[in-house]
């Protein structure tokens, strides 16, 4: 090695030694900076909280004079740490089960909600038995689930009966009453095709009678007097809805409600109108889950509310392509 090359090598080695010394002094001077990090833990947490509060990633990066990928890395670190603290809990005893749309490429996802503690337990991609089989087989504490609230989805009912053997299924009251109204409106369209085109009458037909003002009640009664067959069907629908709104009843009261409910189902299945016959068949297939509503006051409104929050998270992120990132944010921000 020539003398010039030796001088260059000595200069470079000295520069590296000075850099190591400065980096060591920098770490000793700022104890909050972890190894191999260029910023303190407090600064990273501040960036994470700003992004958590709804400020988009590029704006946080421009404000703090860091890269957008650095903001994402800080957020991923804290989200994973918070998710690890919550991942040790077993499956909740009162479970809400529902689906929501994720992306056109991946389809739907299933939400497992802790209805007792008002939090999202987990989100799993898919809604079929094949997609959820691996997750449910390894789900810790599923034998301890006592109550599962869900809408009238046959695929979910089969999953609950197979993987949650000790759980009782409660049909969601909102979905049951909405189904009754939808079939009634279809029957109304058959009897009087011009009636549903009137938006004022359509609004009155959908409501419960106790939600109508005096003038609205008079207007609806005047219309029903012109349609005698529709009036009897409307009164039957109102009685059925009042029956489905019962909740928190004792065992004796539930027996009386069950006998009335079975009579109404039999009347629907032999009425002669196709929409009402289909309604009677559906209610008959779900009679046990619907009757359980009278004993328990649980419903799936908490799960539906979290679905609205998930949509807000997707809009703030301008959509998700990676389901693991989406699941991580939902488990932390919805718990």
Cα distance spanning the termini:
65 Å
Beta-strand content estimate: 5-15%
Strand order of the largest sheet: 3-2-1-4-5
Q: How many β strands by DSSP?
A: 5
Q: What is Rg?
A: 30 Å
Shape: elongated
- Secondary structure tally, helices: 15
Largest sheet: 5 strands, mixed
In which range does the helix fraction lie?
55-70%
Encode the helix/strand succession as letters: HHHHEEEHEHEHHHHHHHHH
Total domain count? 3
Average pLDDT rating = 85
Structural class designation: alpha/beta
Poorly predicted sequence stretches spanning 5 or more consecutive residues: 6-12
Overall description:
The chain has 335 residues and is of the alpha/beta class. It has 3 domains: 50 residues; 113 residues, 2-Layer Sandwich (Nucleotidyltransferase, domain 5), CATH 3.30.420; 122 residues, no CATH class. The protein is built from 15 helices and 5 strands. The chain has a 5-stranded mixed sheet with strand order 3-2-1-4-5, sandwiched between helices. Helix 3 crosses helix 4. The longest helix is centred in the first third of the chain and has 27 residues. The chain is elongated, with a radius of gyration of 30 Å. About 2% of the residues have low confidence.
């Amino acid at each position: 090695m020539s003398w010039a090359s030796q001088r260059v090598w000595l200069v470079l080695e000295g520069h590296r030694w000075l850099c190591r010394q400065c980096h060591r002094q920098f770490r000793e001077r700022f104890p909050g900076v972890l190894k191999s990090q260029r910023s303190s833990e407090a600064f990273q947490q501040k960036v994470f909280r700003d992004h958590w509060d709804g400020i988009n990633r590029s704006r946080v990066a421009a404000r703090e004079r860091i890269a957008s990928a650095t903001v994402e890395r800080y957020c991923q670190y804290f989200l994973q740490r918070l998710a690890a603290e919550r991942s040790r809990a077993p499956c909740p005893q009162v479970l809400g089960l529902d689906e929501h749309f994720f992306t056109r490429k991946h389809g739907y996802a299933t939400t497992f909600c802790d209805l007792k503690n008002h939090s999202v337990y987990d989100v799993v991609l898919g809604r079929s038995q094949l997609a959820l089989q691996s997750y449910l087989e390894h789900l810790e504490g599923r034998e301890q689930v006592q109550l599962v609230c869900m809408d009238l989805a046959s695929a979910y009912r089969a999953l609950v009966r197979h993987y949650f053997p000790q759980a009782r299924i409660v049909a969601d009251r909102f979905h049951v009453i909405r189904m009754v109204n939808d079939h009634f409106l279809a029957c109304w369209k058959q009897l009087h095709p011009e009636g549903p085109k009137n938006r004022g009458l359509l609004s009155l037909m959908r409501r419960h009678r106790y939600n109508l003002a005096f003038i609205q009640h008079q207007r609806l009664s005047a219309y029903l007097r012109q349609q005698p067959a529709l009036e009897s069907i409307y009164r039957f629908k109102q009685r059925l809805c009042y029956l489905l709104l019962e909740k928190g009843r004792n065992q004796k009261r539930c027996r009386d409600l069950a006998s009335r409910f079975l009579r109404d189902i039999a009347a629907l299945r032999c009425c002669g109108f196709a929409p009402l016959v289909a309604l009677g068949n559906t209610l008959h297939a779900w009679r046990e889950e619907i009757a359980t509503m009278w004993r328990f006051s649980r419903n799936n409104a908490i799960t539906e509310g979290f679905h609205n929050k998930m949509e807000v998270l997707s809009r703030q992120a301008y959509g998700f392509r990676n389901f693991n990132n989406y699941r991580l944010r939902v488990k932390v921000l919805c718990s």
